[in-house]
Design brief:
By secondary structure, the chain is an alpha+beta fold. It is built from ten helices and 13 strands.
Length: 372
């Protein structure tokens, strides 16, 4: 049975940057407007006053300094506080398809593949703009790829689970070359009026080519040595949105937004993650010190530092566990793949690393890889 490799990766970076300073300026103006408008009710104790945010608070809490966005103006307008863009209609292309196609072309170029080489597409993402037709099939059409395509998702681990699905299809012989695509158009799913979460997400798209080792160009290829997945139900990270919402009256404004209980997530998820990784390394008779790099989920820098310190017995040095969330913010499921794409060029044959995501679900997924 052939070894399977990731032979190329791709990254699409949206056109707009929103710094913490810009985000906070808009949020604080919104807070002032709200408190002024509701001054009498606040004074009477009927409405709770809103509090300002600050760039320092955001960076200390998360490590985030900025984020990329497909649309910026509405987000930083205190009278709007959400992205503003045209509704997708029949005949128009959703943003997630446009983003995914761009990342896919980047990955195909790196792997030296054309549409004729690929016979399967997996599109895996936390968010999606419509239920059907599948965006995977639309991406397939845009790229001119024959074969089949499907959409999937498991929140924060959508990317790693998508990569693993591609890997297992190749192992099973149901595909000869797989394009994995991971568009995360996250900003419409964020409540920019919520001090505790308005800074979290950024937009991005990643992609990868997976294929048997014997057909791959070795320059960017990483052999997949082992995969592992885990889920355990938790509603500490959730979204209430439903296709049936039009049936209900007085649907809350924030129903479509991401919600989390951050302290509970930190306390409950971290032990699961460290035990999961330790178990995977033990299954492969490896110590954490054998890994040149851990490309970890990019939700919170403090979580990553805690996990790496537990695994290595010390804080990471250099690029042992690279951080990209300072630039990209939390990109839902894409962070570990962004880190892998950005921080792999110094690997030589035999060097090992771990691509690992964790979060909502709870879900954890990882791939142990080795440079060809």
């Amino acid at each position: 049975m052939s070894n399977i490799v990731i032979s190329g990766t791709g990254l699409f970076v949206p056109p707009h940057v929103i710094t913490n300073e810009e985000l906070v300026a808009a949020f604080n103006q919104y807070v002032d407007n709200f408190n002024q408008k509701n001054a009498a009710a606040i004074e009477a104790g009927d409405v709770q006053a809103l509090a300002h945010s600050s760039p320092e608070f955001i960076e200390k809490a998360s490590g985030i300094k900025a984020r990329y966005a497909m649309y910026k103006d509405g987000i930083i307008n205190p009278d709007i506080m959400h992205p503003v863009f045209p509704m997708t209609q029949e005949g128009s292309t959703p943003e997630m398809v446009t983003m995914g196609v761009a990342a896919a072309r980047d990955a195909m170029a790196q792997a030296g593949k054309t549409a004729a080489d690929i016979d399967m597409i997996v599109v895996s993402s936390t968010f999606r703009q419509r239920d059907y037709p599948g965006m995977s099939v639309e991406i397939q059409r845009e790229l001119g790829i024959e074969g089949f395509a499907y959409d999937m998702g498991i929140a924060c681990s959508s990317a790693t689970f998508g990569l693993i699905n591609a890997y297992t299809a190749l192992k099973a012989g149901t595909a000869k070359c797989v394009l994995f695509v991971n568009p995360e158009f996250t900003t419409p799913g964020l409540n920019f009026k919520d001090r505790d979460s308005h800074f979290i997400f950024g937009d991005v798209a990643t992609a990868a080519i997976l294929e048997p080792e014997e057909t791959a160009k070795p320059e960017h290829a990483f052999r997949i040595l082992h995969t592992k997945q885990f889920t355990q139900y938790s509603d500490n990270i959730r979204c209430e949105a439903s296709y049936a919402d039009y049936c209900f009256e007085n649907v809350p404004e924030d129903r479509y937004a991401f919600k989390q209980q951050g302290r509970k997530v930190f306390k409950e998820l971290l032990p699961l993650v460290t035990n999961f990784i330790e178990g995977q390394l033990a299954d492969n008779q490896l110590e954490a010190s054998a890994l040149k790099r851990m490309w970890l989920h990019q939700a919170n820098v403090n979580m990553n530092l805690f996990a790496v310190k537990k695994l290595l017995g010390r804080l990471p040095e250099g690029n042992e566990a690279p951080v990209v969330l300072d630039e990209f913010a939390n990109t839902a499921s894409s962070g570990s793949v962004i880190a892998f794409h950005r921080y792999q060029d110094d690997f030589v044959s035999g060097d090992k690393g771990l691509i690992c995501s964790f979060g909502a679900g709870y879900s954890i997924g990882s791939l142990l890889v080795e440079k060809l």
